[in-house]
Amino acid sequence: MTPGEQTNHPAIRIVIAEDQALVRRGAAILLSMEPDMEVVGQARNGVEAVELAQLLHPDVILMDLHMPLKGGVAATREITQALPKTQILVLTTLNDDETVFEAVRAGAQAYLLKDADEDELLETIRALRRGESRLTPQIARKVIDQFRRLAPMPQTETVGDDVSNRVSCEERSSTPRGAINAEPLSDKEEKILQLISEGMTNRQIATTLFLAEGTVKNYVSRIMEKLHANTRTELALRSKRQSRPE
């Protein structure tokens, strides 16, 4: 980011939610040295993270997943539901794959390992400001694997047959809720999903496809409905999973 770009935008307001004081203070010192970033609060647990988010309305929250009183997943879910403009950047040790996957479902937009270098952390925060989502390769692989395990089985029933249209108890127990009624995407929706997976914002997609930004937003909402996804990150992961060779 150039000095000119830094002066054209207000500083990115950041809250750090981390129960380890050394890690929390170290991150605060690092971020405070950046002219386009401002640490406005520090939380020692998930309860404080939610309270500070509601009080300060930060742009970005650095969220540890394993914290006392309230975990990072629960805190992320509460914050993203109440403050959709606040972006969550999860910092994790990757010890618990299921917790990382649940953080995706909760609405987090970026994921880094705690051993990430300083430049990667700073660039990820700035990417969130630009409306992008970021995943480290290790986390992306594990979350994609989770989606693969939850993928619905191919439907072979004939539409006109009342008996074959009924889903057996075994299929219901092994298929995620909502997956049975999943609708296929149109060619335009497939293209937009691909661009989302490449990290494009709605505005960039609109420019690429010569559409109005409002039209792109409507497409994205419809794609999320069809794929039963809660966030753009989920859409990106589903796209990568579908395009990955078996």
Describe the structure.
There is one protein chain. The protein has 246 residues and is α/β, with parallel strands linked by helices. It folds into two domains: 3-142, Response regulator (Rossmann fold), CATH 3.40.50; 178-246, Arc Repressor Mutant, subunit A, CATH 1.10.10. It has helices spanning 3-8, 21-32, 46-56, 72-82, 97-106, 118-129, 137-150, 162-165, 169-174, 187-197, 202-209, 213-227, 232-243, and strands spanning 12-17, 37-43, 60-64, 87-92, 110-113, 134-135. It has a six-stranded parallel sheet with strand order 2-1-3-4-5-6, with helices on both faces. The longest helix is centred in the C-terminal third of the chain and has 15 residues, at 213-227.
List the SSEs and their pairings.
Elements: H1 3-8, E1 12-17, H2 21-32, E2 37-43, H3 46-56, E3 60-64, H4 72-82, E4 87-92, H5 97-106, E5 110-113, H6 118-129, E6 134-135, H7 137-150, H8 162-165, H9 169-174, H10 187-197, H11 202-209, H12 213-227, H13 232-243
Parallel strand pairs: 1-2, 1-3, 3-4, 4-5, 5-6
Helix pairs in contact: 3-4, 4-5, 5-7, 7-13, 10-13, 11-12
